[in-house]
Specification:
By secondary structure, the protein is mainly α. 63% of the residues lie in helices and 0% in strands. The chain contains 14 helices and no strands. Helix 7 packs across helix 12. The longest helix has 31 residues. 24% of the residues are buried.
Length: 290
């Protein structure tokens, strides 16, 4: 299963890396901020109108987050039939379906914007809503994956890990919460965050509230990433549990993906070792203070 999972991950990398790289480049040009409304001006209105859960709710369950993008392939009855006992089997099935989909992706002709517009103008209302909701699910999957990778690159932990840590009753919880909020402000809408802010307000916890405010106003990225595409590749492989493979094998994969050469700071195993060390330090992106 591990070989199959690595195969899925590499196919996924090949498909989504250019899009995520474009998104992060947009953030770099926008002083570290992500302006979603520049691409999707009505996204917030649709989420509110259809009473959809905000995408940060999926950080509460990493398994659910991993299969989020595949939900567009299943009908509502099939999704409702998933139980805690069958969730693991469904997750494996979604991985296999994802692999099959990626194998066929090059043969699928995506509709043009004009064709989509024509469909939405002529389709029944429920068809339009279903189509748009499916597109929103796909966007949710893309956003959550991107923010997860940015969190790994910045703080060395995924948003799922930070959100889990933030719910614990220990000294690191508030730090994890503030870091998570810096990457994705929609986390502020999670119920446990509401409870923490209420507790801080009633308890006059000025320090926490000040730190939370600082992280809210701090850009997602604190500067340009020197080897952006390489760092993203590392983050995706790390998130899937494959970054610690033998470095010779990793070098071959980077070359296959086209993330190789002087431009990416990787020309041999020695360079790769240095880049991995720099990536794991996270010093150029993450803030050490809380």
């Amino acid at each position: 299963m591990e070989n199959r999972s690595l195969e899925v991950t590499l196919k996924l990398l090949d498909k989504i890396l250019p899009e995520i790289d474009f998104l992060v480049e947009h953030m770099e040009k926008n002083q570290g901020w992500f302006n979603i409304t520049a691409f999707l001006p009505h996204l917030a209105e649709n989420i509110i109108a259809w009473k959809l859960p905000i995408w940060s709710t999926f950080y509460l369950d990493e398994g659910q987050l991993k299969t989020l993008g595949m939900l567009v392939l299943y009908d509502i009855d099939e999704l409702k039939s998933v139980t805690p006992e069958t969730a693991a089997a469904f997750h494996k099935k979604s991985l296999l379906d994802r692999l099959e989909l990626l194998d066929e992706a090059d043969d699928v002709a995506l509709p043009s914007p004009e064709e989509v517009t024509a469909f939405l103008e002529t389709a029944e209302q429920f068809e339009c809503e279903q189509y748009t909701k499916q597109m929103l699910i796909a966007l949710y999957a893309f956003f959550t994956a991107t923010f997860n990778y940015l969190s790994l690159m910045t703080f060395g932990k995924t948003l799922c890990q930070l959100v889990e840590q933030a719910q614990k009753d220990d000294a690191e919880a508030d730090k994890a919460l503030c870091q998570a909020v810096q990457i994705d402000r929609t986390i502020l809408q999670l119920p446990f965050v509401h409870a923490r802010i209420l507790k801080a307000q009633l308890g006059n916890d000025k320090y926490f509230l000040e730190q939370l405010a600082n992280h809210i106003k701090r850009p997602i990225l604190s500067g340009k990433i020197r080897y952006r595409k390489l760092w993203l590749t590392f983050a995706i492989l790390e998130d899937e549990g494959f970054l610690d493979m033998p470095q010779e094998k990793l070098l071959d994969i980077l070359e296959e993906l086209g993330v190789y050469g002087q431009k990416f700071g990787v020309e041999d195993v020695g360079h790769l070792r240095n880049r991995l060390f720099e990536y794991r330090k996270k010093s150029s992106l993450g803030k050490k203070i809380f």
